[in-house]
Amino acid sequence: MKQYKKLKKPVEFKRVRHEGRSYAHPFIILFAIENGLDDLRIGVTAEHHIGGAVQRNKAKRILRAAIAPLVANIKPGYDLVLLGRRPILSQKSHQIEKILAERLRYGELLNKNELSK
Q1: Rounded distance, CA 57 to CA 42, Å?
Q2: Of residues 74, 70, 4, 14, the one with CA closest to residue 41
Q3: CB-based burial of residue 50 (10 Å sphere; 0-12 exposed, 13-18 middle, 19+ buried)?
């Protein structure tokens, strides 16, 4: 499985959220911006009004599980931020995976051979 680097610093998250393109869905928002590198970097976060730390961590676990199978098909050279919204807590990771694939396809962030699926 192809690995990705993690966005960790708040300034990196802010840059992607404020300068990048957003692809929204009621369960998630995908933010993307080119990073000028040969690496794919992904950050995962959750809205604060989802609830307490337990709910936010659950949302982030769901997002990480959903993005993992898709990483091999995402174009390198992008920074992505996945933002979980409140309704994500009632979903399974395979449902979120389908939504993420749809958002990535819409944003033309998947490799060429994956765009037609």
Answers
A1: 16
A2: 4
A3: buried
d(CA 29, CA 81): 8
Helices marked H in the chain: 10-19, 53-67, 93-106, 112-115
Q: Both tokens of residue 82?
A: 């996945």
- The whole-angstrom separation of Cα 95 and Cα 101 is 10
Residue 110 has a CB neighbour count (10 Å cut-off) of 18
Q: What is the pTM of this model?
A: 0.89
Distances in Å between the Cα of 43 and the Cα atoms of 74, 112, 114 are 14, 23, 22
Confidence check: pLDDT of 115 > 70: no
User: In degrees, to the nearest 5, what angle opens at C-alpha 107 toward C-alphas 80 and 61?
Assistant: 40
| Least confident range of 30-44, 50-64, 72-86, 102-116 | 102-116
Residues 50-86 pLDDT 10s = 999 999 999 999 999 999 999 999 999 999 999 999 9
